[in-house]
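Quick one - inputs below.
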Amino acid sequence: MRKHALAFLFLLGAVLPAAAAAPRELAIGAGEQVWFQEDHTVPMVAVSIALPAGSVYDPKNKAGLAAFAAYMFNEGAGNIRSEAYQGELANRAIQLSLSPNRDHFVLTVTALSSQIKDALRLVGLALQQPRMDADAVERVRAQMLQSIAQDASDPSAVAANRFYRLYFADHPYAHPVNGDAVGIAAITAADLKAFARGHWVRGGVRIAAAGDIGAGTLTALLKAAFDPLPATAPVAPPPVVHAGAPGETIVAMPVPQPTAIFGLPGLKRDDPDFLAAYVANYIVGGGGFASRLTTEVRAKRGLTYGISTELSDFQGGGLVLGQVATRQESMAQSLAVIRDVLADYAAHGPTAQELADAKTYLTGSYPLAFSSNAGIAAQLGAFQRAGLPLAYVARRNSLIAALTLDQVRRAAARLYDPRRMTVAIGGSIAVAATGHEPPRKPAAHN
Amino acid sequence: MVAFLCAAAVSAQAAAPAVAQFTLANGLKVIVIPDHRAPVVTQMIWYKVGSMDDPPGHSGLAHFFEHMMFRGTKAEPGDAFTATLARNGGDTNAFTTEDYTAFYEQIARDRLRLAMTLEADRMAHLDLSDVSVRTERDVVLEERRMRVDNSPQALAAEQVEAALYLSHPYGRPVIGWPQEVRRLGRAEAQAFYDRHYAPNNAILVIAGDVTPEAVKADAAATLGRVPARPVEPRVIYAEPTRLGETRLAIAHPDAAVPSFSRTWRVPSYVSAKPGQAEALEVLAALLGQDSTSLLYRRLVVEQKLAADAGASYDGDARDSGSFSIYASPRPGVTLAVLERAVDAVLKQCAATPPAAADLAHIKIQLVAGDVFRRDSQMAMATAYGQALAIGLSVADVQAWPRRIQAVGAATVRAAAQGLDRRNAVTLYLTPGPA
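Output:
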């Protein structure tokens, strides 16, 4: 195992620090952080832009404002109305993806290198002068309301929405990113404009770019797009103090397969144990086919198609988030198996072999993330949003390789105590005919 | 502007990577797509067997068997296949369609030989046990519940597919009817393996930091050693002429938002006359690719009848392809009103060829998609592997941008005129008691 890890570290050295293929920092202004990796193999450029404009900044009575503003991004800017703006993008084959989440609005721009200049001009115009025209606002409102209505019959969306509400209680992370019908109905064009002015700003913006463009050209294009924006940054989200509501809640729905979302208090990205926790999570639930939970719940018992856990490092606090979907009569058994696996893991942690295998996977698969311009922009952007320095890109594998069994065991013990687990189930559950053990906590129907 | 953009797109296309192809002595076809940007490779192995080859009464067998390929061999028992790859920094998964079953690994270039060795082992030495078959069948039923049974849209789409074919097995869901999946056992899986899994029925695609010479040597020493076996030819189906339109009205309590769709059986890239599939591709993009397309502009923006509307063409199939249009109404608009508005747009497409500027713009977008694909090893490997698995060639994939550029306005109108409602299934999905 150790031999493999060393081989990968060598390989990583071959990918990253080579002169042509290492990401570098570009200076475009005081507020912005820009990382760039140049490569001229494929004539296109990918740019990931994270604005401090996530749903955590939604006003209490206008849940969904940040997402609504994000979806309005390509609905007209400056003198260009919605249809014309979208035509300008489409006619140049410029692709925009608009992804609001709890902390950020992540905007991804993909363009042929011959079109990147116009792409960043159009993006800049939308950031600086969004129109928020009435007909476009109503169109997007109708789409958001329809999507909210559809989510109400989707067990995984229902479970996730209930989970966040239970886990975060009064914190603004508690409501869905896309808001609720009442909030969406109450939002006005003036609200959208004000939100964009306050959150589509230079302060705190993070930009990661990769592909077929020179650093000088890219710097000039980004300066033109971002310089006119306010330098102010919004106040950071409040810390998460409420850490879940241990127990099970069922939102009854007549679906064949209920989904359970389960979570435990996690670690903030700057916690010294975070990387150990990341490795610990890979072993128990993050490693696809190789994880303990997949082995026990799927491979041995055939209870589910998918089970996984991940570490969510929200700015205000960390969270271990898990998901499992299974037939009505197997949900109780599945949750019991999950609790047993987690309890054992919290008590004993991984074996030395599991840790060695996790290290070779996590370090060995790292270069896969750097095999395309789109992948590089996404990976660099994820590191930026986690608040990591550029040097982390090259150091990351050696930090993982250096983790000790004690560190990972300590992280597992900190995270996976099932008694602290909040569980929300979308869908109805039934008692298994064969009499499996019942859930440990009484279930609250509502 | 348009002329400049076309020139840019065309020159990008001229720089397409050199793709090597050869066949090993045992009949395994190999495609190599070099990309030296990162020291990693994507390996895909495509078997020319899909759900259309499921035996009668056992729908879902091809997909179920794909799952069984991860359940161990004598040399790599249990989950050793995935565990060994993971220990070596590799990711792996697989997918099944009507026409083919594809398996892939993404891994550091110096582990490619290992990935080939593991694929060679499970091509010939799968160890199917009753216990693993039973457990995996439960997993597949859970997958079906997640993907289909929980979703009124997916259930309705499955019924539309079934109604679209009078005879062809494309009408059966890839994941299988649940009543038939429950019947799948070890004997069916073993017979399916023996009949279809052989090097002479497969295509190996390697994209990434490799040379064709090195791939040839490694493949010959691993997958090249699996003996060829006689493979029965696939059944050739003839879909009879349909005499009338099919309409489906499905009510489902969880269909919170009503929707309208129409799906036509049309020629695929394999079965179409020259230029016909490309014209359908262009027509679908003009009609409903995004918010600048005709259906969205007319129904959502101008008439305000729909919340969303779009169209798509799936021509990547061994037999027929499908062309579909969907729309969801704004509150208070009936599906009948929405359908009339869709029909008016279709009628216009059949009457008038697209404007030259619109046609030029849509071609820029389609051809740019070919450049964006070259950014991804997986997308490139998929494009070539899929083409070969359904009966197209490397040259077909490389000629695609040129063939799209060659589509004329009159051909697009002819494609619209060819959308015959007797070959279509119209769906109204509404909320209501089942």
